[in-house]
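User: structure tokens for this one?
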Amino acid sequence: MKISLAWLQDYVTLLEKNPQVIADRITAGVAEVDDVVMQGAFLDNCCVGKIVKLSKHPNADKLSVCEIQTDRGMKHVVCGGTNLREGMRIAFAHVGATVKHGEETLTLTKAVIRGEESEGMICAAEELDLTSTYPPKPEEGSRPIIDLGDGTEGVGKDLRSYLGLNDAVLHIDNHAITHRADLFSHIGFAREFVALGLAKWKSGKEPNFAFPKFPKEKFPLKLVVEDKALVSRYGACMMTCDSLGETPEWMKQRLESVGWRSVSLPVDITNYVASEVGIPLHCFDADDLRGAVVLRESVAGENITTLDKAKRELPPGSILLSDDDGIFDLLGIMGGLRSSTKSSTRHFMLHAAVVDPVRIRKTVIATGHRTDASTVYEKGVPRVTCQQGLARAIELFLELVPGCHLTSSLESFGTDGKAVTITVSPQRINSLLGTTLTPRAMGEHLKHLGCKVTAGKTSMKVTPPLYRNDLKAEHDIAEEVGRLHGYNVIPDTMPIAEVLLPPRDHRLSVLRHALAEHGFTEFLPLSLLGPDLLKKSGMDPASATALQNALGEELSLLQPSPLPRLLEFAEQNLLNVEDELRGFHMGTVFRDGHDSHFAMGGIIASRRETPLLQDPVLELKTALLESLFSAGYRCTVVPDEQPLPCAHPGRAGVIHIQNTCCGRVFELHPELKDAFKLPGRAAVVLLNVTALFALPTATTLAAPLSQFPAVTYDVTFSVQHSNAVAALLEKARKASALLSGIAVADLYDGKGTAPGSYNLTVRCTYRAEDRTLTEDEAKKEHAAVLSALGV
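Assistant:
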């Protein structure tokens, strides 16, 4: 968006003259200024000149020699322009002026061209960066000289003053003011200049445009509004004129300075008011309207040919105006070609409307057609600007359009709205901003914005003006106080706080590392799976929690157990190992749609039949117990009286820690083993990590190493599979006070063992803490242990 400082000075007196200082203050307090463009940047040392004498160059066919009347006397100049004539007023650049030469700049000096001295330059528009003001005409060639007409008016006058190019234009970044629809206007920025102390109102207050006296004749068209929620404020009237007239130069210059192209006086007035007041307006040819004017939503299949002569398919829900002949206006975006103002137009319907910003945004997205009007409307134009803009437009029509007068009363509906009072705490605002402002100072800042402020003992009541529909709560008021006070004057304060690392639970890392030391590979599957994998794992998909926005059926459920991904991992990777596969993964499991906990699953799968000592269940149990011990837990495994459906019914155990069940270890059921094509035995552990970590870790006690040697004996005997070895070893430990350790050394169930039994080798270690045991003492103790073992 572009803001003209010259235009602003219609309403305010600038207290700061430097455009760059103004831009910096606006950037700090309102919105980012991307650029400051000084009009006539190449017009220094330039004046309006007149060609007094024109002759051919004696030594060049395509050059002319001119005698130019300037503000510094007569100048002898060589020029290659093709549209020169005697008596023509031109743009003349003196020696020392800087002009454009393609993409570069050039400072003029005295020169001799083909034997003729040249003192300056007769300039084309592109050499002075004036192509937008003086576009080249095809019949004048590629680089025509600027033609200011014949006569003597202005000859010798400074060119910048003559052309009225004394303005500075601020280019505002629209993204910084998407919540400030009131700033899409010159009056909106004039308010900010006053609030920031950059200017003061010329009349002591901001301009307030009032309606003239309307005639008694009723509005001739019947206005039918199907849904007033679409348009919260509306105003329209009828006018007639003798002719369209010509747009005055001052209006053209202002429109061009902010990016508008002059079209015709009625259209230029509506564009001028849109940039001045902040509400787009439209002027219709009233003779093209038939019957009732209906304000409604579009339906599927409707279309309109807009002013740019494009036929556009309208999405359902667009806001439009239609009459007996069909749609003639896409309200808030662009008018229709049928009802546009033409050179023959003498009767106008002028209207202004505040429309639903959401509908505008949806229509812009659906049609891909964005206009200056829609950019403003989608921000939410304040309702109070509707009547202000319409009144200002009527004022300009009556003043500038020849013979223009009102022919109807005002047709309008809606209200300007009611301001909502916000109660704020000065103490809270100071706390948020880091300031020590008094309530009075805050009130002064807010009054400069047009707010009404009533101070109490501990709070203030702030009523924002109707054009500030973005001020809704205390934090909005705090922001206004902060930016007007100036964020740069708020002292920098470093936060005073201890920055400590949060407490960390290392048990999970210890458990991971311990399993890795036992040869396990951790894999990281998704916690999402599909019903096919659950069915293959012997689980009911109906018991799993389903996602409402699943990416696909194979990722439509939350995992109810680590088991499915374990089995899938084993099936996919078993062929990549020589003897056995070891893997585990951790993640959250979900049950019954609301219950969830962190769990771990591990698996050992063998590629072939293994001896008893290398049985996957025994290896998995050993690795698990040692890993849990590293994490601070001493656990036991007892037979599982109610094994899971996925477990082998005779080879399953429950993991107990401090008499709490935290998981299960088992051999995989043969049916599941076959379903996942596992050739050998497979053992699985399912551990509830959440329940485990809820238990305190055991205290580890350190003991000194013994100073005396131990005596070790191995004994092998037959044991029935139905007998629990743990109970047998516990009985042996009680048989001798000198038995410092007893452990399983070997298991054998091969050739020579009786059915239902296996050979167990137990290693017994004897030691005394105060002496070296004699052989007789060791044998005596060993005999007692053998008796307890039943050997």
